[in-house]
Structures are given as C-alpha cells and as structure tokens.
Design a protein that fits this description.
Elements: H1 2-21, H2 23-28, H3 38-48, H4 51-54, H5 79-91, H6 101-113, H7 115-138, H8 148-153, H9 173-178, H10 193-211, H11 214-223, H12 225-234, H13 241-244, H14 250-267, E1 286-291, E2 295-296, H15 297-304, H16 308-314, E3 322-323, E4 330-335, H17 339-352, E5 362-363, E6 368-369, E7 378-381, H18 388-394, H19 399-405, E8 418-421, H20 425-445, E9 446-448, E10 452-456, H21 463-468, H22 475-481, E11 495-500
C-alpha cells in the first residue's frame, strides 16, 4: 500500500514538473486569474482610491493615431504573433521573456479587462519612467525593470498593500530601513519617487548578486530570498523560475508572468488599441527647495496658486499634506517656474505660519477633523476654465467628492453646468469672510483708468499679500501685468496693475 502511494505521489510530482518546466507545454494549457488575484486587486484598489481621478485623468480613450481601430475595438492575435513579439523583446534584453498561458492571462488583464487603467498608466509613464531609467542605467540594471513599478503599485507613489508595503516600489518597513528609507509620523520616504527608486535599484542589484538570474531576482523581490531559496531546495536544486514555480508562494507564481505581460503590453500598446490618457495635472519640469520650517500644502497652494492635488502629486512623501519642522531641512518639490516665486515669499510664509502639528485625525490645513459637519449645499455655476480640481480647491473638498455629490460619470464639465457642493462649514465661512474682506480692500485701496484696476503699494506689501486682497487674482496674474517690476523691492506709493476692468 505504501509502495502504491509512493508511485502515485511520484506520478503527480513528475506531471507537475513536466508541465511547469516546459514553457511550450504551458502555452497549450489554459490559465485564468481568480477574482482575488493580487495583481488584479492592486489595480482595482488604485481605481477605488480615486488616485487617477485626482490627477484629472478621465475615462475617455483617445482614438488610435497609428491604426484604423475604432475607439472601443479590442484586437485579437494568434499565438504565433505573440511569440514573434516576445522574441523581439527577448532579443533586446538580458531578462528572459517567455510567452505562455500564464503570461497570456495577464496580457488579457492589462490589454482587455483593465484596458482603461493601462491607458492611464501609459499616460503617467512620461512622468516616472525617465526618473527610473536614469537610476537603473546608473546602477547597470536592465531598463525593462522600470515596468516593475506598474506591477508593484500601478504607478501610485502612495499605494499601500494589505501587508504594509508602501510606495511605487512597495517596500516593507524593515526592508525600506535597510536601504535608507526613513519613515516617521509625518513623512514616508518609501513614497519619495527619487529615494525609493534609488533604494529599489540597490536592492535589485543585491538580489542579482545572489542569483545571477533576473527571473529569480523578480521572484525574490516579491516574496523574499528565503522563499526563493526554499523553492530551489524543494525542486531539487533547479534554478529556472518556471521549474521552481510550483514551490513558490501563490502570489509569486503570478508576479513574474505579470511583469512579462506588462513589459509586452506597454511596448505593444498601440497594437492593442491602447492610447495614453494623459493627466490634466502634469509636471515634467520640477525642481526642489529646502524647507526650513513647518508648512502646510494649503499655505503653499495659496501663495503659489498651485492646486493642492498638484502638490500631493509631486510630493507624495508627506502623509498629511504637512511638512514638519525637523533638525534638518525638508525637501519640497515644485514646478520649475514656481521656484522663484516661492523664494520671494518664503520668509513671509514662515512668519505667517501659526499652525499646530496635525494629528492622524486632523486635516492640517484647517485643524479640523477629517469629516466635519458640512453646511447646506452651495449652488455653483461652471465658468470657462473651470476644472474639478480648481473648484475643489476653492471649496476645500475633493474632486472625487464633487463627482459623487453630482453623480458625474466623467471629469468633463460644461460651461453653465450647475453643481451642488457641500463645503466644510469652516471653509464656507472663511470663504465668505475672504470675499467680503477682498471687496473692502479693493474699494479702499484701488483705482481704475477705465482699462485696468490699479493698487497703490503700502508698507510691508508683497505680491502675495496684494493678490490676496483681490478676489480671483493670483500672484502670477500681477507679475504678467507688471513685467520688469522686481517683486523683492516694491516701493511704497508705487501703482501696479492688478487686473483688467470688468
């Protein structure tokens, strides 16, 4: 009886080995993703969190500029076409690209089932990929590993896994600490695009020294070297991913195929009728400044006329939209053309700063609970140039909330469209007070020649303070109207243009 059981076990073992050891055999088998698949769950959680929506990324797919596809067309290809394309990928990379049933299941996920999300990630690629490529190249690592961040985080720097991994490269707390990523109550360097990419490159490089095999490096990045070493021992010393696949954790079984599928889809997106959906909030030219004191994103947003969502997008390190005062200066990322304006108003921002440190249950901009009692609705008529982010900033709410309150299916707004808003009570009161104050200040201190409104500079005035006195006027507007005027040396009594009349 024991001998019979032994032969049954041996037959099952040899069958599993034969199936997984041969990629060609895998090609003829059928493999479907389960609803609880980790990669599928990651993509759906990014959608549920409203991350892409907060960047102004809509749902409308652009029409193909390369092929004559209709917008909703989903092209189909035979295995020979896939094999030919994978051979092309394989010939140009030190990573071994294999096409089989497992990989095809993930191709179907990214190119069919979640096609729109892939289009959105494709739209974000020009923001993140140059940063990844620069670091990968500096460390001598295959550039194709830039696509690993798609599998890990769907290009969301604030992504968090159910087990506590965080950031674009999904570092666990301890692994992040090992590679110099600091985490505190107010900031998390695992979400810092530059620092986390540098750490990921060092970690991948260390793993390659262990295995000298990029497939095993990817597996170890997902489940840890201990699990990979255990799988190698259980397989009898095999070192090919497809041979040790049955002995790896379930999540890792799909991790390497998902990576290969992502590389394929991102390189052959046009062939699959996937065009990039670009974010409305884009920042391809950024620079950094060192912050010497505590600041909130709300203060910076008001001073520089930048939407808070924009600041969140390029500064994902800060947990509560708040930069704490620490022993060493903190880094703030800003659009390149806003650096000079920040430096001009930096001292004034610090002088104004009287906010207390936020707690986990508070919104730092206003020091109120995250979900305070809201006032009755405000009826808002959409004006030319309005966007969800702009309206949300004005009424201290989120773009996703506006869509929910008004049952909007897309981010597009029509001029004259009526929106019902429910601003936080303190925000609504503050908004009205600011409007009254601006009207009073405008009446008392401005003049007009029939074409422009002018303001007479008072002692202590800055462009930022002056702009705050006039509703609908930004510092940028004043600078454009007063070319050649140095904002650092405003003279008392000087008249400056504020805005056109009417």
């Amino acid at each position: 009886m024991k001998q019979k059981s032994y032969y049954i076990f041996l037959y099952i073992f040899l069958f599993v080995q034969a199936v997984f050891a041969n990629p060609d055999t895998l090609l003829t088998n059928r493999y479907e993703l389960t609803p609880d698949n980790p990669v599928l769950s990651l993509i759906d959680s990014a959608v549920a969190a409203g991350y892409y929506e907060s960047l102004g990324i809509g749902d409308e797919m652009p029409k193909s500029a390369k092929f004559r596809y209709s917008v909703d067309s989903v092209p189909e290809f035979d295995n020979e076409t896939y094999i030919r394309r994978f051979k092309k990928l394989d010939s140009g990379s030190p990573i071994k690209f294999v096409y089989n049933a497992h990989v095809k299941a993930y191709i179907n996920l990214y190119a069919k089932r979640r096609k729109k999300i892939t289009a959105k990630m494709l739209g974000l690629a020009p923001v993140y990929f140059p940063i990844f490529e620069e670091q990968l190249d500096r460390h001598g690592i295959p550039l194709e590993l830039k696509y690993l961040a798609i599998v890990e985080s769907a290009l969301n720097p604030k992504a968090k896994s159910r087990v506590g991994a965080s950031g674009l490269w999904q570092f666990m707390y301890e692994t992040g600490k090992m590679y110099g990523l600091d985490v505190s109550s107010y900031h998390d360097e695992r979400s810092d695009v530059y620092l986390s990419t540098e750490a990921a490159c060092r970690y991948l490089k260390d793993l390659y020294k262990m295995y000298n095999n990029w497939d095993l490096v990817l597996a170890a990045y997902n489940c840890g070297p201990g699990n990979v070493n255990k799988a190698i021992r259980r397989s009898g010393g095999k070192t090919d991913f497809w041979e040790i696949m049955p002995f790896l954790p379930r999540e890792t079984n799909g991790y390497v195929p998902a990576f290969m599928a992502v590389v394929y889809v991102m390189n052959f997106a046009a062939e699959h009728n996937i065009q990039p959906i670009k974010p409305n909030i884009s920042c391809f030219k950024v620079d950094t400044v060192q912050i010497q004191s505590q600041l909130t994103f709300a203060q910076i947003s008001q001073a520089l006329n930048i939407p808070i969502e924009y600041l969140e997008y390029i500064n994902p390190t800060y947990k509560h939209n708040y930069i704490p005062a620490t022993a060493k200066a903190n880094t703030l990322c800003l659009p390149y053309d806003k650096i000079g304006l920040f430096l001009t108003n930096e001292a004034m921002l610090y002088d104004q700063n009287k906010v207390k440190k936020p707690t986990e249950k508070e919104t730092p901009e206003l020091n109120i609970t995250v979900e305070p009692q809201r006032n009755e609705s405000v009826v808002y008529k959409v004006k030319s140039g309005d966007g969800l982010s702009k309206i949300a900033q004005k009424y201290n709410c989120r773009a996703t909330q506006i869509k929910e309150w008004n049952n909007l299916k897309s981010d597009r707004l029509q001029v004259g469209q009526t929106l019902y808003l429910y601003p936080k009570s303190s925000s609504a009161t503050q908004q009205k007070m600011q409007e009254v104050k601006a009207a009073q200040m405008t009446a008392n201190k401005s003049t007009s020649d029939g074409e422009f409104v002018y303001y007479t500079v008072k002692p202590g005035d800055t462009f930022f303070k002056i702009a705050a006195k006039f509703d609908g006027t930004s510092v940028e507007d004043i600078i454009k109207l007063n070319k050649g005027l140095d904002p650092r040396s405003l003279k008392q009594g000087a008249k400056i243009k504020i805005k056109p009349v009417g």
